[in-house]
Amino acid sequence: MKAIVCSAYGPLDSLQLAEVAKPAPKADQVLVKVYASSVNFNAPASVTGKPLIVRLMSGAPFTPKHQTPGNDIAGRVEAVGSSVKRFKPGDEVYGDLAECGYGAYAEYVAVPEAALALKPDNITYEQAAAVPEAGLVALQALRDFGGLKAGHKVLISGASGGIGSFAVQIAKALGAEVTAVCSTRNLDMVRSLGADHAIDYTQEDFVQTGQTYDLIVATAGYRSLADYKRALKPNGVHVATGGDMKQIFEPMLFGWWRPGGKKLGSLVLKVNKDLDFLSELLASGQVVPVIDRCYPLAEAGEALKYYAQGRTRGKIIISVAQDGD
Ligand SMILES: NC(=O)c1ccc[n+]([C@@H]2O[C@H](COP(=O)([O-])OP(=O)(O)OC[C@H]3O[C@@H](n4cnc5c(N)ncnc54)[C@H](OP(=O)(O)O)[C@@H]3O)[C@@H](O)[C@H]2O)c1
């Protein structure tokens, strides 16, 4: 089978499509024919080895831990091991392989059934591949860390990106009043996703508007904890899911600091937790993945380079096979 292979840290241009052995499923594994994957932060980081902290945290200081990058997949079950209970050949599935060796940029993967959920029928493989990591970061930040309730005022910074575009839609589905922060070119897009208010960060500073929020989800950029605290209501919650390293690590270091009952923290994703909950939102049409661009598998390096520019609107998809193949 064909797969993207990266055997040494290097530039994104160095990614090669190679012929490798097709995996055979073990007793507890599902063999999935991959139709699509998507690009998350870990993919370019695992190829370039930058930022260095990612290399160190993955326990692979000198060579990539996983030779084939990528963690989100959507595809069709081709075969199952003898102890697999939840899936059968022909099932359409999707999931995040971050806890079972990555390797999504390939024609086939053999993975434990816990890494998979049934794909809703009403969405394409490309749409489904956009969901597992970004959608669950958004859900867990809003509902689990943020304690979001209907009627809450929520601000989402980085609302036009992968995580942000899911966060806007999930927050609306959960009954929140949503303010989306993005740049000028993305104002119409975030409104079309359901945002009640949109703030153009190139023109206006959400910290200075005088508005306060029950929950702030920050997926991009950097603001100090003092800024977030100023924009929160009493007992409000700020959760950083991404952005500048400082934005992620400051709440980890100072999360114990709860001025005025305000909670400030960073999200650590629980991989695949509640993917079935997201499936229901997708099946009902309350959440529709936003796709910026699709690249064929052979051009995965170009897809990663585009992602690394930090200007993605929604998600970037790696198309591995066409439906009907
Ligand atoms: N916590 C976890 O467990 C977890 C899991 C996965 C990923 N992450 C983190 O999530 C982040 C990546 O998320 P992603 O893939 O959703 O990002 P992304 O899609 O690459 O985000 C790109 C978007 O961010 C917007 N943006 C850039 N700077 C901004 C700013 N200062 N204010 C508002 N919007 C801004 C861009 O819009 P404009 O072009 O209009 O500026 C663009 O639409 C990474 O930092 C990664 O480490 C965390």
Summarize the structure.
The protein is of the alpha/beta class.
Ligand types: NADP nicotinamide-adenine-dinucleotide phosphate
CATH class of the largest domain: Alpha Beta
CATH homologous superfamily annotation of the largest domain: Medium-chain alcohol dehydrogenases, catalytic domain
Number of discrete helical segments: 10
Class computed from helices, strands and strand pairing = alpha/beta
SS strand fraction: 25-35%
Cα-atom radius of gyration:
20 Å
- Give the topology string: H per helix, E per strand: EEEHHEEEEHHEHEHEEHEHEHEHE
Proportion of helical residues: 25-40%
The figure for the number of domains is 2
Largest sheet features: 7 strands, mixed
Mean pLDDT: 96
CATH topology of the largest domain: Quinone Oxidoreductase, Chain A, domain 1
Cα distance spanning the termini: 14 Å
Total count of strands? 15
Describe this structure in words.
The chain is α/β, with parallel strands linked by helices. It has 2 domains: 2-131 and 289-319, Alpha-Beta Complex (Quinone Oxidoreductase, Chain A, domain 1); 133-266, Rossmann fold (3-Layer(aba) Sandwich). It contains 10 helices and 15 strands. Strands 3, 4, 5, 6, 7, 14 and 15 form a 7-stranded mixed sheet that branches. Helix 5 (162-173) links the parallel strand 8 (153-157) and strand 9 (177-182). The protein is globular, with a radius of gyration of 20 Å. The structure holds NADP nicotinamide-adenine-dinucleotide phosphate (NAP). NADP nicotinamide-adenine-dinucleotide phosphate (NAP) binds at residues 40-41, 133-134, 137, 157-158, 160-164, 181-183, 185-186, 201, 219-221, 241-243, 267-269, 307, 310-313.
